[in-house]
Amino acid sequence: MKLLLIEDDEVLADQLLGNLKKEGYQADVSYDGEDGLYRSVEFTYDLVIIDLGLPKLSGIEIIKKLRADNHKFPILILTARSSWQDKVKGLSAGADDYLVKPFQFEELVARIQAMLRRAGGYASSELHQGPIKLNMETQEVLVNGEVVNLTAFEHKLMEYFMLHPQKVTSKVTLADYLYEDDTDPDSNVIEVLVARLRQKIDPDNTIKPIETLRGRGYRFCIKD
C-alpha cells in the first residue's frame, strides 16, 4: 500500500515515515499544505494522512480541494486540536477518520488498515477474490487453501490487485505504486513482475486472474 503523510512537524513526520516503512508500507511525506496537495493530485496513493494545522494551505482546504476534484482515496486527519468542532469540520470536508495527538503508533496502523479494508469493500483483514485469499495482517497469500510464497514486490502487486478488482491499471501507475519516486523502471520490469505473479498464483492457467489490456495495462478479474 502506498501512503502520503502531510505533516509540518518534521521530527514527528520522519519518525512516522520510518515506522510506516518498517510496517511494509510505501510512504512519502510532505511538510506543507501546498506540496501535500500537489503530491496528492499528481501521484497515486491508497490513503492520505493530513495534519489540520499546516503552513501555506490548511488541512481542511486540502481535503475540500481533493474531494471537489473527486479524489476518493481514504483520508485520515491528524490533529493536536481537542475541540469537537475541529473534528467535525475535518469530517464534514470529506475526511474518513481522525486521530488526536499524541497517539500510539499501533493505533495509527490499526486505523490505516481498517480504512483500507473499508475502501476495498472488506470488513475484515482477509481479502477474498475467488479462490485467492490475502491476509493484510499476516501478509499470507493462499490459493485454493495452499500457501503461495511471494517476494516483497510480488506481494505488493498482489495486494494492489486484490484491493482494486475490475480496475484497469496502467504500467505507469503500477510502477509509481511499487517503486520509490527516484526510480524509473522500464515497462518490461512491470511485465516480468506480472508474469511471475501469474505463474505463482495460477501455474495451471485455470483461474486467469490478471487480464492484459493492450495499450491500457492490466485488470484483476476472476470470472465465475
CATH class of the largest domain: Alpha Beta
Q: Terminal Cα separation, in Å?
A: 27 Å
Strand order of the largest sheet: 2-1-3-4-5
User: Which structural class fits the helix and strand makeup?
Assistant: alpha/beta
Strand content: 15-25%
Rounded to the nearest angstrom, the radius of gyration is 18 Å
Q: Any idea what the CATH superfamily of the largest domain is called? A: Response regulator
**Number of H/I helices:** 8
Uncertain runs are none
Shape: elongated
Number of beta-strand segments:
12
CATH architecture classification name of the largest domain: 3-Layer(aba) Sandwich
Average pLDDT score: 86
CATH topology of the largest domain: Rossmann fold
SSE succession? EHEHEHEHEHEEEEHEHHEE
Number of separate domains? 2
Helix content: 40-55%
Largest sheet: 5 strands, parallel
Describe the protein.
With 224 residues, this protein is an alpha/beta fold. The chain folds into 2 domains: 2-119, Rossmann fold (3-Layer(aba) Sandwich); 126-220, Orthogonal Bundle (Arc Repressor Mutant, subunit A). 42% of the residues lie in helices and 21% in strands. β11 and β12 form a beta hairpin. α2 (33-42) packs parallel to α3 and α6 crosses α8 (187-201). The longest helix has 15 residues, at 105-119. The model has no long low-confidence stretch (mean pLDDT 86).
